[in-house]
Amino acid sequence: MCATLTSDDFAGRDASGWSATVYRNTASYVFSSEATEPILQLLGALQGERILDFGCGSGEVTAKIMRLVGREGVVVGVDMSEGMIERAREITMLPTTHLIVGDTQGHTFLEEFPPNFVGKCDRIFSNAVLHWCNRDPVRVLVNAHKILRVGGLFVAEMGGHGNVAEVRNALHAALRKRGIDPVARDPWFFPTIEKYMELLKSAYLRPLHTSLQPRPTPVDDLVGWIRLFGGHNFLKGIEPREEQLIVEEVVETCRKGSACRWDEVKKLWYLDYVRLRIVAVKMDDHIGLRVG
């Protein structure tokens, strides 16, 4: 569920634009057992393995992975939000060296990892993160390739083609109406299966499984959802009164649509989530990856 939020709720956003407190209080469905169990089953974590949680957020799923690998295993979490990492430290009790503030799209991303991890990681896990990596999605996969051992698995779930299309289109329309370029503000990357398979192969990760999973997702407040996920990108820097008008316009557009549905009986919105699930394997070590 997503409780009613105003601009004032986000005074505690960190430099990445996220508030760990608001995220945990209003979007816990993202890391709920119902949402994460299917991808954790695909991960297939084993006792004693080394596993990286790409975009660990506030650490709830990271803690589950720790239990799966046991005391002999090694888990490292990485997130671009310092606030999320601080909260993950409280939840997981992992040492500082195993919780890293870093950008998975960065060229220097690997420099912060603990010794004997890069090139020796058994599995990489990522949930609801990679669709935020629209700046350089290939670099994410190149970094994953370098971190994994030969035979290691990359297992992820992200927004896929068509994800929250109605809300996204309404946001674009509302911003364009005001002379604001929505493309420059749009943070999302929702690829087709074919596109993501192409990216995996370009980073020498062989796809083993790809599927699109429609998953209508209930939230009780669409205004809150828009402010949570769009406040630090689509709506950034917009005067509060104008922001309110934009959000109300988007909600009204969605109310008249079909994909994003309001259930009058349950008093819930059902957002048109579409999840792309991926399992890929690192076949061998390639020095000359085809990226800049």
Key structural traits:
globular; Rossmann fold; disordered C terminus; seven-stranded mixed sheet; 292 residues; single chain; three-stranded antiparallel sheet; alpha/beta
Helices, strands, pairings?
Elements: H1 20-26, H2 33-43, E1 50-54, H3 60-69, E2 74-79, H4 82-92, E3 99-101, E4 121-127, H5 137-147, E5 148-159, H6 165-177, H7 182-185, H8 193-202, E6 205-214, E7 217-219, H9 222-230, H10 240-255, E8 261-263, E9 268-271, E10 274-282
Parallel strand pairs: 1-2, 1-4, 2-3, 4-5
Antiparallel strand pairs: 5-10, 6-10, 7-9, 8-9
Helix pairs in contact: 6-10
Description:
This protein is of the alpha/beta class. The protein has one domain: Rossmann fold. 35% of the residues lie in helices and 21% in strands. The chain is built from ten helices and ten strands. The chain has helices at residues 20-26, 33-43, 60-69, 82-92, 137-147, 165-177, 182-185, 193-202, 222-230, 240-255, and strands spanning 50-54, 74-79, 99-101, 121-127, 148-159, 205-214, 217-219, 261-263, 268-271, 274-282. Strands 3-2-1-4-5-10-6 form a seven-stranded mixed beta sheet, with helices on both faces. It has a three-stranded antiparallel beta sheet with strand order 7-9-8, with no helix packed on it. Helix 4 (82-92) links the parallel strand 2 (74-79) and strand 3 (99-101). It is globular, with a radius of gyration of 19 Å.
